[in-house]
Specification:
Helices cover about 40% and strands about 25% of the residues. It is of the alpha+beta class.
Length: about 475
């Protein structure tokens, strides 16, 4: 198989050479085979020896292929033609993929008719896993001796085998290329050979089953019953048995599509088709225990690499976040330094305003608590009897001392006790009778003390400490 759009599994720039290998022939497909119109190359082989692990004719054919392509280190994708492989559908316990591989390899005689000798196996799941349910797989097996002979021949001639799979996987891939709609629905592909007919079941672009029938139209009724009249089915392979089968199915009400487009000529040769589409990940691939160990090692290495990369990215992201934080803090500090003079002047002004308001509030409080002496003097004047005269008026805090003379000091005392704004009226000194200047009658000299009640009228200045305006 060689498709110019398919990347090699081990090197993105390396071109794979697809080969279909049968006991008697090798068919190679490569875009570099310009001497052939269909870019294929054929070689006749002798059957592999049974007594040792070497295949001389294959070694010679691979050496000739390398010279034809002009390569010394080539990559192969190999499709093994029947009867080299046995492919069947199996129902296995719910195991992991690598565990499935090992179970099949160690119990090959239980699952495969040809599994009496050591086998190399492969399996691909036919659908999504269901927890606790059996796993349905399409499994393939081939002789470990044969695989060893093929690998030895490839190593001796400078080839590296990238992938090895049964031809059924390549034919399923060819069906998807011939009829692209098959990738989106349940469908069937018939591969007509001179000695048999292979029925491939494809669901969601995956090979899910393989069945064998007799060649040509011999088993057409059985095939029609298997696929049903409404099935999406395509037929490829050798022209004569293919036409016979298509005609028989048409008579049974089953419409089988024939190849069209760029792969029409290729589809007439099953071996050429298997070479052209070798290595496609449609069905099972053959993997040895050593291959499993290598893949597990590569997976662990990749996991560690990804873990290390994630740790590095985490550290880098943390560093970037920390740098961003410091950068923002630096900008905040710079902005604070820029506005500090304005804030300082604003705070000085606010402090001054607050101090002024506090002083105003204190004065307001003192003013409210201070006696209103004008009204008190007026009250005293109104309360004194007509014969009383004030000579002195002394005040201290909320106390007032009245010094005067009257005909009768007792009436003055009684009058002041009844005054509205005075309380605690008492004599501050002994009453003395004194003769007045000019020889008039003697009058009583009194000194009376009293406290002023707080009945002052509040001013319009609000009490408390108003909040000063800080907007400037």
């Amino acid at each position: 198989m060689v498709s110019p759009t398919r990347a090699d599994q081990t090197s993105k720039k390396r071109v794979q050479t697809g080969i279909a290998l049968s006991p008697t022939a090798l068919c190679a497909a490569d875009i570099r085979l310009r001497n052939s119109a269909d870019r294929t190359w054929q070689a006749t082989l002798e059957a592999p020896p049974q007594e040792n692990g070497h295949w001389p004719s294959l070694t010679s054919a691979l050496a000739d292929l390398a010279r034809t392509l002009g390569v010394t280190q080539g990559a192969l994708a190999i499709s093994l033609m029947p009867p080299f492989t046995e492919v069947r559908r199996l129902e296995l316990p719910p195991l992991k993929p690598d565990e499935l591989q090992r179970v099949l390899a160690r119990n090959a005689s239980r699952y495969f008719v040809s599994g009496k000798t050591p086998q190399i196996v492969g399996a691909s799941e036919t659908g999504k896993r269901v927890r606790g349910a059996a796993t349905s797989v399409v499994a393939a097996a081939t002789s470990a001796r044969l695989i060893g002979a093929i690998r030895a021949a490839a190593e001796q001639t400078g080839w590296t085998i990238d992938v090895m799979a049964p031809a059924e996987s390549a034919w399923a891939a060819a069906a998807l290329a011939l009829w692209p709609a098959f990738a989106r629905q349940s469908s069937f592909a018939l591969v007509a050979h001179d000695d048999r007919t292979d029925l491939l079941s494809i669901i969601d672009g995956r090979l899910v089953n393989v069945r064998r029938f007799r060649s040509g139209a011999a088993d057409a009724p059985m095939i029609a019953d298997t696929v049903g009249p409404a099935a999406h089915i395509g037929v490829l392979g050798s022209p004569r048995p293919r036409r016979e089968l298509a005609a028989a199915l048409s008579g049974l009400g089953v419409n089988a599509l024939s190849p069209t487009g760029e792969w029409t000529a290729t589809a007439e040769r099953p071996d050429q088709t298997a070479a052209q589409f070798a290595g496609r990940d449609i069905g099972p691939t053959l993997r040895s225990e050593e291959t499993l160990r290598v893949e597990a090692s590569q997976a662990r290495r990749l996991t560690w690499m990804m873990t290390g990369a994630a740790a590095v990215l985490f550290a880098i992201s943390g560093g970037i976040e920390l740098w961003g934080l410091h950068h923002q803090l630096a900008r905040v500090r710079a902005e604070r330094d820029r506005i500090r003079p304005e804030i300082a002047s604003t705070m000085v002004g606010r402090t001054t305003v607050e101090a002024t308001y506090q002083q105003l509030a204190m004065l307001n409080s003192i003013e409210r608590s201070a006696p209103q002496w004008s009204s008190i003097i007026a009250s005293l004047t109104d309360a004194l009897p007509d014969d009383a005269h004030l000579m002195a008026l002394r005040t201290r805090d909320d106390s007032v001392i009245v010094d005067g003379v009257a005909d009768h000091a007792a009436r003055v005392f009684n009058a002041l006790e009844k005054a509205d704004q005075l309380t605690g009226v008492k004599s501050a000194a002994a009453v003395r009778r004194e003769i007045q200047e000019g020889g008039s009658d003697a009058l009583e000299h009194f000194v009376i003390a009293a406290r002023v009640t707080h009945t002052g009228t509040p001013t319009t200045t609000p009490a408390g400490n108003p909040t000063p305006r800080t907007d400037r």
